[in-house]
Amino acid sequence: MENNVLSEKSATTKGYMTPKEFLAHWQGHRSLTRRVIDAFPEDQLFSFSIGGMRPFSDLAKEFTTMGVPSLHGMITGEWKGLDVLAPAGVKANPETKEELLALWDALTVRITELFNKIPEADFHKQISLFNQYDGEIYSLLLYIVDNEIHHRGQGYVYLRALNIEPPYFYER
Amino acid sequence: MENNVLSEKSATTKGYMTPKEFLAHWQGHRSLTRRVIDAFPEDQLFSFSIGGMRPFSDLAKEFTTMGVPSLHGMITGEWKGLDVLAPAGVKANPETKEELLALWDALTVRITELFNKIPEADFHKQISLFNQYDGEIYSLLLYIVDNEIHHRGQGYVYLRALNIEPPYFYER
Description:
The structure is a homodimer.
Chain A: H1 2-12, H2 19-39, H3 42-47, H4 56-76, H5 82-85, H6 97-115, E1 126-129, E2 133-136, H7 137-161
Antiparallel strand pairs in A: 1-2
Helix pairs in contact in A: 2-6, 2-7, 4-6, 4-7
């Protein structure tokens, strides 16, 4: 009986979304961002800018420095940069579109591996990300996704200004 | 004993985030978007564009058509537009910055009221939004927030191109 009650309770207490659903949300956005990176001609990826903003390569590189280093720290309590944590065989500081996409793909695998190590109860644990940003884990990870959506939206304007059709926003 | 087990279970099954936390996330983003609308000079809000894209007023008006009409439908099963659902005293189709901000503020109140009527178990209910977009409620609402972040990021490029400093992204 107790088990029945528990499983019933569990079915109605996924909360707003489950950790697995959040991971799919995150990786869906990363998949779209990969296509936005790939839509840029190589020279424009590293140089095109509007209003003094960074080129899209710099925005994409910012995303690569956030996911894996944050997850690694959330699990171990040690805050290290991508220079230490980049998966073997890829450059932490890519200088071509090919190198950037190779880094992106290696991080895609690593993000899933690391995210799955966070116990469900820990998503509401208060931490200090890089000893600098205080918050609960769920909120800090959500911020990382929001930051990617925000800057990727800027990449869409760059592509439109370059007369290039960006990928559909709703296709993940 | 059973109660103890249940409350312990409940404490560790907030899922990734609770509905209340999602609402705070959504309203935090809406608060930032309000400041982005307000940062535009009135004429540029309704006219400035890059690469053939819509002016920021049109993007902001798109956001206003999504939140309340979606929530209303999720609760009642009836899909109606903002022309029917706009709160009393505000214009569904604002033509000045003042009218747009007044609509925004009225919808802020309404979104909280409507969102709080959704039972927690319903966030995983499969629906067809406007008889057009199939998905679970949590995912459809998340899409509405993502769409706002995405297009607001584009508004940041407009502001930068106009030499106007946008609000900090991390301040909600």
